[in-house]
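Model it.
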Amino acid sequence: MFAANVWHWWIGVFLLIGSIGAVASVFAGYVAKVSASRYPNRRQRQALKQK
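Modeled.
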């Protein structure tokens, strides 16, 4: 029974790391999307001027 307890702890650690990574990537994607629309790069500014 001791091996089952240790195994569950490792599954929990991997799930925790994966969930933290998923939340961080969603947050980083949101920040990148919002800042890209707020501060357009040169190509986006030129495209807006031509319209």
